[in-house]
Automatic annotation (TrEMBL):
The protein's name in its UniProt record: PROP1-like PPR domain-containing protein
PANTHER family to which the protein is assigned, alphabetical: ADR149WP, RESPIRATORY COMPLEX I CHAPERONE (CIA84), PUTATIVE (AFU_ORTHOLOGUE AFUA_2G06020)-RELATED
Keyword Repeat: yes
PPR repeat placement: 212-246, 281-316, 317-351, 352-386, 387-421, 422-456, 492-526
Key word Repeat present: yes
Length: 574
């Protein structure tokens, strides 16, 4: 067939008035969180101006996997409209949107302990200790599973997350595992609470076997992602204090973290400093090649790294060549891509499914649809079997070319080919349907995703939110926010920005203000674009009080960010 072709709060009042005090008093809460790249590097990020960014399967780069949407103008519809075919689904979920506050929403949800604790954590606490005090007023049965779910649900909100963690670890019902400590370490690093992160590491060092290579990897990644490269390197240098070896695997994790953090230069310096003490592996060089090709776009440096690799007695593999193919694909230099393919074959390396997927995706983006489809024929000739990512990328190419029926046919045919749709496949189908304003199809894919027990992520909801804002489907939007929360998907800054932008564009500045306020209360620093768009919309509509309050919120957010950035990481010593 192919060849033939935080519980996060959300301020929502459907009948919101135009005054700030009204929308602030009609709050109700909903939901709140990513993945691992095995290529040469290892995990995560956010895109503010489009949909949140996702880290994908190893060898497949982010730019290949994310489906870009264009804004489409649609006539305004009834805010309360809900497709009849989905009204029963919404009803069964017990998440129908209406004018409710926190208490009435809470009584409408299934009363298990996760939801009960989430109700407590939804309120805005000033400190983790205040969270502990509030939780001490009630009795809950704590389990490892419950703790994990809460920490994931509030992974972007460090106060409720850390407060709950502090409370949970002293409960008699459970002893928190090293995995849960690692999850909390990651949450603190994500919120840039590096002092608390290192204090927790200190605590872990007194628990037998709790500090692992995984722990240090999370710490190095969070430092590097925040531009604190020297602190990431410092964490690596202290590994032996925790009984961990500074070996090739540990060095690769550090180099990978620095490359992922956008500093291949720091990564290369680490390699030069350590190569005479720690033996580099093929993966070491692949990480650096990937960084030079993709991050810095310095192919000459990548070639020097390959030369150094060969001088150390190691040979480039399929991953190495795929890095160069990706670099040339990004530049649309397809003759160079063909040359790399020929060189691979001359040296006895067969292209992997990832290599073919990257090439096909790039040709599709260059509007070379026939050549993109020819890649499948080359795969068959070389005996390479398509996987989920290949099919998903093919669906994306056809979707952006307007061939929706082909997209649907391939999706339905995938199980017949021995490949079951995964989260990325469903996300691709949802994005294509939402982009084309096929509301019923988009929701059907979400429903089918749920029925197949395929876990949604942040990129599942982003195109649906855009569609709802564009089509003014606020009742559906409210349902989706709750659905997101119930699936333990945490709300990040990119999602807040998406909602503010979408609501402003469709003349809902009051609701946009509510979302903006919530982002600040949850500890986020709104981007300048997010702030400027909202202020301009308020000015245009003459909402002076609201504009003044938003300006105050932005000042508050900047002060919070300044306090965090001036925080000194704690040195770990006995």
């Amino acid at each position: 067939m192919i060849s033939s072709l935080k519980r996060f709060p959300h301020f929502w009042c459907l009948g919101a008035q135009r005054r700030l005090y009204v929308w602030r008093s009609s709050v109700h809460y909903v939901s709140d969180d990513l993945l691992c790249n095995r290529f040469c590097t290892m995990t995560e990020t956010i895109n503010i101006n489009q949909q949140p960014k996702v880290t994908e399967s190893p060898e497949l780069p982010d730019w290949v996997k994310i489906v870009k949407e264009e804004e489409a103008a649609v006539k305004l519809e009834d805010d309360d409209f809900l497709l009849p075919s989905f009204s029963e689904w919404v009803k069964n979920e017990k998440l129908r949107a209406r004018e409710i506050d926190v208490r009435s929403l809470a009584s409408d949800l299934t009363e298990n302990d996760v939801d009960k604790i989430s109700k407590v954590l939804r309120f805005n606490f000033k400190s983790p200790d205040a969270v502990v005090d509030e939780l001490n007023k009630s009795r809950f049965v704590v389990s490892e599973c419950l703790v994990e779910q809460i920490l994931k649900r509030f992974s972007f909100e460090w106060i409720p997350s850390y407060g709950f963690f502090k409370w949970a670890k002293v409960q008699k019902d459970v002893t928190l595992s090293s995995d849960l400590y690692n999850l909390m370490v990651d949450n603190l690093g994500r919120s840039k609470k590096f002092g608390l992160m290192m204090e927790l590491l200190d605590e872990m060092s007194h628990l037998q076997g709790y500090v692992s290579l995984n722990t240090m990897s999370k710490i190095m990644r969070r430092y590097a992602k925040s531009g604190k490269c020297e602190d990431a390197i410092g964490a690596f240098e202290r590994m032996e204090e925790f009984g961990l070896q500074k070996d090739t695997s540990a060095m690769n994790l550090l180099i990978d973290a620095l490359v992922k953090g956008g500093s291949v230069e720091h990564a290369h310096k680490v390699y030069l400093d350590l190569k005479n003490h720690i033996a580099p592996s093929v993966q070491t060089y692949n990480i650096l090649v990937h960084g030079w090709c993709r991050g810095a776009r310095k192919i000459d440096k990548a070639n020097e790294t390959v030369k150094d690799m060969e001088e150390h007695g190691l040979s480039p593999d399929v991953v190495t060549y795929t890095c160069f193919i990706e670099a040339y694909c990004r530049e649309k230099k397809f003759p160079n891509v063909d040359a790399i393919f020929k060189e691979m074959q001359m040296k006895g390396h067969s292209p992997s499914v990832v290599t073919y997927t990257i090439t096909m995706k790039a040709l599709g983006q260059a509007k070379e649809l026939n050549k993109a489809l020819d890649v499948y024929e080359k795969m068959k000739q070389n005996g390479c079997v398509p996987d989920n990512s290949f099919y998903s990328s093919l669906i994306h190419i056809l979707g952006t070319s307007g061939r929706l029926k082909d997209c649907y046919d391939i999706f339905e045919d995938m199980p017949n080919r021995g490949v079951s749709p995964d989260t990325f496949t469903y996300n691709t189908m949802i994005t294509i349907a939402a982009h084309n304003s096929k509301e019923e199809d988009a929701l059907k894919f979400l429903q089918k995703m749920e029925e197949s027990q395929c876990k949604p992520d942040i990129c599942t909801y982003a195109p649906l939110f855009k569609m709802c804002c564009r089509m003014r489907r606020l009742k559906v939007l409210s349902f989706l926010l709750n659905h997101m929360f119930k699936n333990d998907v945490s709300m990040d800054l990119g999602t807040y920005a998406l909602l503010v932008r979408g609501l402003c564009r469709n003349r809902n500045p009051e609701r946009a203000c509510a979302v903006f306020e919530l982002a600040v209360l949850r500890g986020f620093l709104p981007t300048d674009t997010m702030y400027d768009n909202l202020v301009k919309e308020l000015e245009k509509r003459g909402l002076k009080e609201e504009k003044k309050y938003v300006e105050e919120l932005m000042s508050q957010a900047k002060q919070q960010a300044s306090d965090i950035s001036s925080e000194k990481p704690k040195d770990i010593k006995e």
